[in-house]
Amino acid sequence: MNKAQEFRRLKKRKKIIKRLVISSIIIVTASIVFIYKAPIFNVKQINFTGITTVNEKELQDGLKDYLGKNIFTVDYKEIQEKILANPYIKEVKINKKSNAILNISIKEGKVAYYIQTGEIYKAITNDGFYVEQLKTLEGRNLVSIIGAKDNGKEVGQKIIDDENTSKILNAFHPIIKSNISELRIERLDISDILNIKGYIKGVEILFGDDEDLVRKNDKAGKIDKVLSILEQKNIQKGYIDVSFDGPPVVKIES
């Protein structure tokens, strides 16, 4: 092959490569434009999972402006911030189910307690967040917290920052939500976390500190011991002391 032929071959090859590069750029550009402009990639539906307390319609109404927007350009962080503005919600995860559907998984705070200020009841999650101001407790299965102050905090703010106190509230949450009417805890005194007290009807319960409140492996927790005693004995007034290792002390008063 002479030099002229080699030159023509290289020139032809460069033209082919150039055409391929240009074609690739055109295809990629067209694909991007299609993805960002085609109606099939517009958000048509928003689904929620994990809702137990929050009003889903209110959430849907708050996000209706995102319907019709391109699913690839929607600002997930902005959506999360909008949803997290609801004090009942503590965590939000968003993912695409298809070209036109957003799935939003939320995790709610567990509302089980309240602090009373005058005639106002302030609903609190077991993480210590003040989530709602109530005028009545009717229809609510909430436990009064004694020894906690709101310190002028507003809805959405954290009233209880202490980690040990949050641990205590989390430990009592399952029994509160089980809502066994005759064994319902009415008040929880956490004025001194080394001397926690609970009240069920006329029975005062001395829990001591926050150690072993709940069952660990096969060892019954203090709460389990108290419930077992109350289920076996008809105690209307008195006290149960489970603040120490060993058999609980039970005093029944007439």
TrEMBL record:
Parts of the chain that traverse the membrane: 20-38
Residue ranges constituting the POTRA domain according to the UniProt record: 41-109
Gene Ontology terms: biological process: cell division
Cross-referenced InterPro entries: Cell_div_FtsQ/DivIB_C, FtsQ_DivIB, POTRA, POTRA_FtsQ_type
Membrane is among the record's keywords: yes
Cellular location(s): Membrane
Domain of life: Bacteria
Keyword Transmembrane helix carried by entry: yes
Example of a GO cellular component annotation carried by this entry: plasma membrane
UniProt keyword list: Cell cycle, Cell division, Cell membrane, Membrane, Transmembrane, Transmembrane helix
Stored PANTHER family: CELL DIVISION PROTEIN DIVIB (PTHR37820), CELL DIVISION PROTEIN FTSQ (PTHR37820:SF1)
Name of protein: FtsQ-type POTRA domain-containing protein
Protein source organism: Clostridium gasigenes
